[in-house]
Structures
1.
Amino acid sequence: MNALPAESSSRKTERFPLWAQIIVGLIVGSFIGAMWPSFGKLLEPIGTAFVKGIKMVIIPLLFAAVTLATYRMGADIKRLGKMGLTAFGWFYLGTGIAMAVGIGLNQLIHPGIGVPIEATGSIPNNLAGSIDWVKFFLDMIPDNVVSVAANHKIIPFLVFCIAFGLSLAAVKERAKPIADILEALLDTMLKMTMGVISFAPFATGAIMAWLFATQGMKMVMALAQLVMAAYLGLLVLTGVFCILLIILGYNPLDTFKKISTGLLLAFATGSSEVTLPSILEALDEMGINYRISAFSIPLGYSFNLDGSAFYQALAVSFLCDVYGVVLDGPTLITILITAVIANKGTANVPSASLVVISLILTTLGLPVEGIAIIAGVDRLIDGVRCVINVFGNVTCTIVLNRLFGKGLSDDADQAESSII
């Protein structure tokens, strides 16, 4: 059974597909922002409206997709547990690889050497200086599911969806009417989302116009090597993901084409959350079991942030060079271990990347104020982080599908037949 609507067939017949329209929007918007900055700044509300429109449908979409996926897999709790453990194992592996690439690129390029020590931005107010692990785990349990949904607190909402899906599976045939309602809700929300996404070319153009109009070129040139290192890291990690896809039997170019809309949205908006509907549809078109994609993708958006991990390692290494700290073996190991642990512990914390960077700086004895040096170009690198995050989550989902997809599909369908 396929829970996702068949939108892909209509897209194939388009002479000018959505991903191409988005690229045109990116180019035109960048040109407008660079040539007419005063006008480019006025276009910000268009991009903001688009992002708000996507976020409007995220919570009901997550509720229907994650609950249904868990319900369908609920007949085999053992396999669900194995898949969850495998996913988190992959999350840590991906985080380690991404951070190693970030540190390696800094060691190769050393973009921080010779950079004048002056703030190019500001540090967010009330930036956390440590991880309260007890609070982190307690925050995963929603005391008011309506409140966490209203505030877009994804992790506790996912916990509720998974618990609700498992409970539906436990009541067996009596849950069938609720499952039918959830399927209708999922189809409806995906239809609504596709309507919002159809405006993506205009929104991405507006966002890029605003971005180019508001980023001072003097500041960009001062940290140009850091920005260059970030984009080079995107190419390196993309190459790593492509190699994995080839090993798994997938054509990287075909995969790129399928997920291109999601990747372009991630780059333009700097938000992984915005890409959820298009990525779910793309994975469905690729033949990925929807039970796995609906479980893996939302979980990955909270815990599998390869792009953020890469940037954290790169930024800290960059600041070490700025402050004249020698990046010897112990220092590099400290950066890697601290970041891998902290990266997962801040999944539900505002300004998570900056929190991790501040923790590592504190561990190394460097001033947290160093964040202000790189804050000015943070938005220029946001898109890179998000593209890597999305591609990493897609790769993880394909791995899980290869390991669990076939057996899960057969077993779940048999269990569903017995319930009905």
Note: The two ends are 14 Å apart (CA to CA).
2.
Amino acid sequence: MEKNNRNFRNRNLQNADISEEEFKKLQELEINDEGFKDEESPKHKKAGAPIAPLGGGNAVYFDFDDPVPQFDEVIAIQFQTAGKVYWYYYPEQKNEGKELVNGDVIVAYSERGMELATVLNKCMDDFKRQNKINFIKNGFIRKARNEDLEKAKKLETSAKQAAEVIEKINKELGIKMKVIKVKYTLDDSKAIFYFSANGRVDFRELIKRLAYELRRRIEMRQIGVRDTTKLMGGLGPCGMDLCCSRHMHNFLPVSIKMAKDQNLSLNPNKISGICGRLFCCLGYENPTYEKLRADYPEEETPVTEKATGRKGFIKKLNVLIESLTVVFPENHDKKEKYEERVFPRTALEQIKGQWVLNPVAETIAREKEPKFVLPVIAKEKDLLKDPSPVSDGEEKEKRPPREKQNSDNRPKEDKDNHKKPFKKRFRKNPHHNNGPKNNPQPKE
């Protein structure tokens, strides 16, 4: 990462594309969080260990001695919308009447305790990418009943009241934190508070008072800006719901190099989302751009023009229209000025490990390009018709001559009959400034 940032800085700052301040902002945008903190932490995952020391029931990860489960013996579930996908061992679904399909709501054990989960469609490719330790056994409890759904709604109301309690205690203790979400486990034994704050927060006294007020175990989880946006949701600049809160189960690693390869503006305000990080959608088209750029040299690669022998370097690539911008620097000895030229990809050849611009290949490629003729509309056909020629016998109609007018835009006869108005003379009064210039009299 440091090497890529160093190359990015040298290439762009030397060309004065961005300033030092904008480059620092771009580096801050590139910092990725570890992931959604509401999910399990990989560092606590061990083979054969329980998924949660408290409240996880008998659910454990697969051990090395356990056989690898089959595709028909597992189910893929998520505990919240666009949450992490978990693979649970459930061989009973082979029996009639116990099979689970997409959209079914079940009760299962998670890292936080007993919760409601939704069954997802399984994908064979995702199943093959899972290690044996990723599968969880003894985690499935039962299908959700109406009682479970009603209880979940009541717990949501209790969670809203708990949010008001913590806000009140924070004001009394002077703790600066923003409570994002409050969640109760389905067995009503634990309250989980998700909050965001600048730096670390000492909430030891806060937990004591919350435990006294709510009479439950308290768990505090500090989350980052990406996790906050995922929980709160919102609309992106495209007008759609945010990808992280709609369908993204995991955050994609996004870098500044992706934005640069896609010829996007390096303005931090234009390539960052409402979370303050780079757009997650930059990673969607990145594999396509990497495949197209495989046949192109990198930026700052020296090239030589075969006809004149002039040396330059590649400044910009546009893989969509298959073109590249080459810069020829100023040469005082040969009196050659600075020049930027755009060449098609066909004009670039590699000879003995060096890139050469061949104008002959450029002209041949242009001749082979198909020539498209746009259809002519009926109205355009009338405009394109030649005007009818005038025969020798016919004469063009001449316009009648225009009468000459004087400077005052009146005919001569009217001017002779017009009499000049009589001008009154005014005597200047030194006491007040009344004169013909300040107060002109109307003409008779």
Note: The two ends are 90 Å apart (CA to CA).
3.
Amino acid sequence: MQDAKHRIVITGLGLTAPNGNDLGEFRNNLLEGRSGVSDYEIRYVGATHAGVCDFDAKRYQKRKEIRRGTRAGSISIYCAQEAIKDSGVDLDALDRSRVGVYLGITEHGNVETENEVYDLTVNNNSDVRFWSHHHNPRTVANNPAGEVTINMDLPGPHYTIGAACAAGNAGLIQGLQQILLGEVDVALAGGVSEAVKTFGIFASFKAQGALAEHSDPTKASRPFDTSRNGIVVSEGGAIYVLESLERAQARGAQIYGEIVGYAINSDATDPVLPNSERQAQCMRKALARAKMDASEVDILNTHATATKSGDIKECAAVREVTGDDPNVYVNNTKSYIGHCMGAAGALELAGNLPSFKDNVVHPTINVDELDPECALKGLVINEPREVKQVDVVLNSSFGMLGINSAVIVRRFVK
């Protein structure tokens, strides 16, 4: 086993999701089957469904700071501040230049840019003197992570990781690697998304025929169900405090789990259509890094977005990796919150971490008629399942342009 300097553990977590603004609320709603998806209307697209967060941005920002920044920045600041509070890390006792911020994203700044363009259009005014001077800092690629460093007075390294919908896992992986490289002592790492405030994402999925529709918004996101008809666009964030086991033990920190395996690879085949073979390779690579067999995984959280072919392709990948082992319990979180894009992987991992303590697997909800091609033997649907013990969670997250990610977290054992 690695020495404590090279074992990376999770000691704090801050999140906001469409159905919860902290881990306790989020987890409780997952176990009770409570969806966070609601009816929504957005410019040009009209009536649709979305997962919208209801966190208190003013808890950590002044009104002026919220106005000049981005929605993704506000989500990031909220989650990062909550994560540090949860971890018990005393920033004033640290060398703040040794705290890094690494956030996975799909998009940011689009919201404010669309609003600026809209204002010029409706007012028939092309005078760019009235264009916001905040545009550039809002839209640079490092914005959400940068907003965190300014808000929290963290002069260490920061950047975002553009990894489409695999970004939440990618942020975690980057934070872990920077600690192992000795670049930082503590990492704030995870993923964020402001997707629901930009009409372009909705319009694109609608044009593709992949935007979910249902008479009941809470049932619109339905991975694995025969009547699934697309994605529910959502926003959210989940940021973790990562540090070495040595450091965590020295300060008597709580430990949610230890990251023992991870992998990122590419389909290299199509911009949108997933490749189940490469997804399986990614999960296997993560297992190899963790020195584990697939049979040791207790919970495998799927990426499944409720598109017809996407769910089937991923289930094929899971079968290839696990051999359809009924003791590998498979679940999905998007059925509750929709697709939180850059935050998806980080939020979905968060929902399963409490299983290390309560030994309960949260289900996939909204499965009225299971698609036979998605009928994995270990799939947990509609009702939570109590199990003997949960020791290992494998979190899969895949994105457009064929980027795949997997993170494996193990129950902490000394």
Note: The chain has a mean pLDDT of 96.
